[in-house]
Amino acid sequence: MTKKMIVYFFMYVFIFFIVPQVNTRAGENLTLNAAIDEVLKSNPEILSGRRAHEAASARIPQAASLNDPMVELEYDKIYADRMLTGDPMKTYAISQDIPFPTKLYLRAKIASKIAKMSYESYKAKEKEIIARTKSAYAELFYIYRSIEINEENKGILEQVSQSATARYSKGLGTQGDALKAQVELAAVDTELIMLEQKRVTAQARLNTLLNRDPGEEIGVPAPEEAIRFVRTLDEYYSLAEMNNPELKVYRYAIERGKAAYDLSLNEFMPDFTLKYKQMVQGDKAVGNAWAGTLGVTIPLWFFQKQAFGVKEMKSELEMLKAEYEAKEKAVLFDVRDTYARVEANKKLVELYETSFLPQAEETLSASIKGYESDKADFLTLLDSRRMLVDFQLKHYNAILDLRIALADLERAIGVSADHDQLKEVKNAKK
């Protein structure tokens, strides 16, 4: 193999094996589903919530366990000398504290409810991050579409500017028309600069949610699937009542409060201590020299301790019920608010698509024909073009607001907005 062939061989390896691996991720268009999957796997806030739930679950068996037994060694030299044996007397003992049986059960129940609260808090954080991801993804897509519209507008304005300049050079137009076109071009260039800054910020926001480097290039987000919005407001209310993780947290908190209240009542019951002693002389156990002890706690100061413990747990339970009612009202308000935003923006998108945009396109077409036939001035042409671009941008802005409102609605109800739970909804209403 010649030296030249070796060089070509290494160039081939570099181009076909190394370069694609470096640029694969940069060349991919990120889809919304892929972004959500990556967020669920990598987002630090979600991972933190998951670990908190695992930690809370690990406390359940600890709460149901007895305290560690105590082993004692008593060395009695004085006793041994008094018996004139010459050998010291040793006593080995083991003791175990045993709470009243229902106390262990209730402590485990409280720990179980806390673990369930931790799980629902983790799911609430997950829903929140998913909603933020959907909003950030939609915002980045909107910015790219805005850049595309403005670049297309810039290209058309450059052609119009050249046409106005040519007409002026031929004495068919005025110098003002050419200057107006240049002003419009400058305005578009300014808008593109601002959109680039917004693109960098939106991309960094999405990268942060994905736990990537904020400066990593994502590329143009792929278009999202069509929006399906077919439920009534009452159905969304029912879905929120059943599935909202924050409401579930409060429901489990109330159950934990009930268990804590029952435990406070059980504090009036005695705890027990079992103890066994075995005396040893020399290296041998003394046959009948053993003792057993049963101890029982007496809640003698119940009027200062247990009674106020019951009062504390009862007040805390009532507080949790009041907080649940307040949270329920807040969640239903969020559902109502986001539902109204979705409805309004959905109608606005339809209005742009069926009325505003077609009319603006017809107006621009008529202005172009009128300008070419000297029946319309150049300012009318620019206004028509500006109106169409403005409607196009507002159309995509309405889509963005619709996506954000839909993400907020899904966070409030705890499931996808088109999630099929009609049977559960009907059963909930019954």
Description:
There is one protein chain. By secondary structure, this protein is an alpha+beta fold. The chain folds into 2 domains: 1-27; 31-65 and 99-267 and 305-429, Outer membrane efflux proteins (OEP) (Up-down Bundle). The protein has 11 helices and 4 strands. The chain has helices spanning 3-27, 32-42, 44-63, 77-82, 101-169, 175-209, 233-243, 245-266, 306-372, 378-413, 422-429; strands spanning 70-76, 89-98, 272-281, 284-296. Strands 1-2-3-4 form a 4-stranded antiparallel beta sheet. Helix 5 (101-169) packs antiparallel against helix 6 and helix 5 runs antiparallel to helix 10. The relative contact order is 0.12.
Which helices and strands, and how do they pair?
Elements: H1 3-27, H2 32-42, H3 44-63, E1 70-76, H4 77-82, E2 89-98, H5 101-169, H6 175-209, H7 233-243, H8 245-266, E3 272-281, E4 284-296, H9 306-372, H10 378-413, H11 422-429
Antiparallel strand pairs: 1-2, 2-3, 3-4
The domain tally reads: 2
How many beta-strand elements? 4
C-alpha termini separation: 83 Å
What is the correct CATH architecture of the largest domain?
Answer: Up-down Bundle
How would you briefly describe this protein structure?
By secondary structure, the protein is of the alpha+beta class.
